[in-house]
């Protein structure tokens, strides 16, 4: 719990991630102690889970099987059981990652043009955007570099925080977010 704890933890996480193999088509996303492995191959996922467990153990870390989940858009019954350190990781269709709910919806109805996750994010960003817009448009407003810094601090940080969940969405679902950022 000291001042150096977050710094030392980041060094440990960097070491842990650097020990993992590079597998084409597989991405590892890490934010603090939340880690997501994205892949389309069941074989690659099991291989990465094993390597991740070995790397974590070599760094003195213990993986919590109770907090680990396999999240998929496929039929869970058609997938093999995935294990890490002798523990089978359960499948799920919804989970919370970095405080945001993530779930696969079969299809977005035509009348609902914005994906629910993107809509929730836009609702969170709108109140943060209002002061930046006012400051940038006001006659006695701020310069472009200051407005950009405010944008990065107030808005971009939220988008970056949720990027592991956003990267799972199809590109068309992200268009409203892109329009928001370009206005």
UniProtKB/TrEMBL annotation:
GO BP terms in the entry: DNA biosynthetic process
Domain Reverse transcriptase: 1-102
Transmembrane segments: none
InterPro entries: DNA/RNA_pol_sf, Rev_trsase/Diguanyl_cyclase, RT_dom
Signal sequence region: 1-32
Nucleotide-binding keyword on record: no
Annotated keywords: Signal
Protein name: Reverse transcriptase domain-containing protein
